[in-house]
Design goal:
Elements (H helix, E strand, L loop, with lengths): L1 H6 L3 H31 L10 H52 L9 H13 L5 E8 L1 H8 L1 H22 L2 E6 L2 E6 L5 H15 L13 E8 L7 H17 L5 E3 L2 H22 L3 E10 L5 E11 L5 E2 L5 H7 L2 H16 L7 E5 L2 H4 L4 H11 L7 E5 L2 H5 L1 H13 L3 E7 L5 H7 L4 E4 L12 H13 L3 E4 L9 H8 L4 E3 L7 E2 L8 H8 L1
Parallel strand pairs: 4-5, 7-9, 9-10, 10-11, 11-12, 12-13, 13-14
Antiparallel strand pairs: 1-3, 1-4, 2-3, 6-7, 6-14, 6-15, 7-8
Helix pairs in contact: 2-3, 5-6, 6-7
Length: about 525
């Protein structure tokens, strides 16, 4: 009915008129002709002299009721048909919109991630080649932060148009995977040189000035390339390979492209495994303190230990700081590791003679953290470790970033009795400046002044010792090794050096190897 009405809107009224005419005709025929015959056939009484006026009244009554019974349903039917047609059109429109949203990205109009993955799966299922260029915009977050998301959307749309042009020029498909991540998909075999040309063109065109939405220098593109015929035979794996290659470009400085390299993938996985292992190591106190003796001069009696970090791996091996400190710095875990080492070192040292001190290097980020002094003092209090037995070693790097905060923090520690030492003294560019303005109690002369055969450095050491005496500071000489025996220790003592540290007096050892420094053993040795 809907289709008939749509093809000929006038047909329904015509049908209504024909139906009504038929009803009127049948009523007249019945009243004036058929009624008498039927009554006679049924042997029923019938008054043939019935007035014609009554007969016409009957015809009109029947016609009126028929007209009403036909018009009202017809009106309702027409409305029902119109509503049904409107609902059908809305449903078709919604279905078309749904299909569009399921296929295309709503902002850029490019193929979306789901369809992209289906296309790659189908291609690989047919054993046909596929090359993926994963494209990530450089510094796009800054565009949103500085100019707002509306400007960011304008940028994404323009980037999409440029990618469409590149895809059309090279027989590919442009895709938006989400956010500022796009893709170029090629479903025919392309030589590496051809892919290089396309990638270079993409880096250049995507980094070109935009149409006024943001500054030209704000954007760039980093591309990772993966190919089904060399890298992966699964859609998800192929996209992962492209992502790995793109990530390498981010590390190499951005606005570049890289092909997937399985060796780099192995290195990246190893790095991820290392980071996970180190996170667990910090949480489980697997990074433990090793203790290197510090001796007084000239007696060469042990007066304390420097706390050095070692990683006791689950396989039983021990890793030096160079293997894990840079990673912990990148992960922001140095403060957590430091607090763990302080806890372990204090608990070990509390079993020793209470004349022994602990010295520990603290990172630049901690020294310039306004909360650091209170956190350190509270931890020492909880471990029941006397403030005067603890020494904080800092480097000049900690003073360059925020000198005012560092000055306040060091003054607070100094006021509570914690010793502050400036480590690696003599190799920085502004040590004298810091010495005169900060609460420094001790300086540690860098080991580079005592390298074998470098006797020309000794006059400089003498000058440092003289300066320290004038500033009423103590001095520790680092790097006193076995090959210096016996000249260097006696020379340092005669020149006014207070302490020495190095392999000559002992290598770093775990707390379990220092049982001889308990209070009773230390007293016996002293006696």
């Amino acid at each position: 009915m809907n289709d008939l009405h749509r093809r000929n809107p006038c047909r329904l009224p015509v049908l209504l008129l024909i139906t009504l005419s038929t009803v009127v005709g049948l009523s007249i025929v019945w009243e004036f002709e058929l009624e008498a015959w039927v009554m006679h056939w049924l042997a029923l009484p019938y008054d043939a002299d019935f007035e014609d006026a009554e007969r016409w009244r009957f015809v009109l009554t029947v016609t009126g009721f028929s007209l009403i019974s036909l018009i009202i349903p017809t009106i309702l039917l027409r409305r029902l048909i119109a509503n049904t047609r409107s609902s059908y059109l809305r449903l078709k429109q919604a279905q078309a919109q749904t299909e569009t949203l399921a296929t295309y990205d709503s902002l850029s109009g490019l193929i979306n991630r789901r369809i992209f993955m289906d296309m790659v799966r189908n291609q690989l299922g047919l054993k046909r080649p596929a090359a993926v260029m994963l494209i990530d915009l450089d510094h796009f977050k800054a565009v949103n932060d500085q100019h707002g998301h509306a400007a960011g959307d304008i940028v994404l749309v323009e980037i999409a148009r440029r990618l469409e042009a590149i895809a059309d020029d090279n027989g590919g498909v442009a895709v938006r995977l989400g956010g500022d991540e796009f893709c170029l998909l090629f479903l025919t075999f392309k030589h590496q040189s051809e892919l290089c040309q396309i990638a270079e063109a993409a880096v250049s065109r995507l980094g070109a000035p935009l149409s006024g939405a943001v500054e030209p220098s704000a954007l760039g593109a980093t591309i990772g390339i993966a190919r089904s015929w060399t890298d992966a035979q699964d859609a998800s794996a192929l996209l992962h390979c492209a992502d790995t290659a793109m990530y390498r470009g981010k590390e190499d400085g951005r606005s570049t492209y890289n092909f997937y390299d399985s060796q780099y993938e192995k290195q990246r996985r190893a790095q991820a495994d290392l980071e996970l292992a180190l996170r667990r190591a910090v949480e489980a106190d697997e990074i433990v303190p090793y203790f290197q003796p510090i001796v007084a001069l000239p007696s060469q009696e042990v007066v304390g230990f420097e706390v050095l970090a070692r990683w006791l791996k689950p396989d039983g091996s021990t890793a030096p700081p160079s293997d894990f400190i840079p990673v912990l710095e990148r992960l922001g875990l140095i403060p957590s590791m430091t607090h763990s080492l302080i806890k372990q070192a204090c608990r070990a040292a509390n079993r020793w003679d209470d004349r022994l001190r602990l010295s520990m290097n603290v990172s630049a980020s901690m020294v310039t953290d306004a909360l650091f002094p209170d956190q350190l003092l509270e931890q020492l209090r909880q471990e029941q470790f006397a403030y005067h037995r603890f020494e904080v070693e800092i480097t000049e790097e900690a003073l360059v970033g925020n000198l005012d905060v560092a000055r306040q923090n060091l003054s607070k520690l100094h006021d509570h009795g914690v010793t502050v030492a400036l480590d690696d003294f003599g190799i920085g560019y502004s040590s004298l400046y810091h010495l005169t303005r900060l609460s420094i109690d001790k300086i540690k002369i860098d080991r580079s002044f005592f390298e074998p055969g470098q006797t020309d450095h000794l006059p400089m050491v003498e000058a440092i010792l003289g300066m320290a005496r004038s500033l009423k500071m103590q001095v520790t000489a680092e790097g006193v090794e076995e090959f210096h025996l016996p000249h260097l220790p006696s020379w340092l003592a005669n020149s006014g050096c207070n302490y020495a540290q190095g392999y000559l007096y002992g290598r770093p050892k775990p707390a379990s190897s220092l049982f001889c420094y308990t209070h009773s053993s230390f007293a016996q040795q002293a006696g």
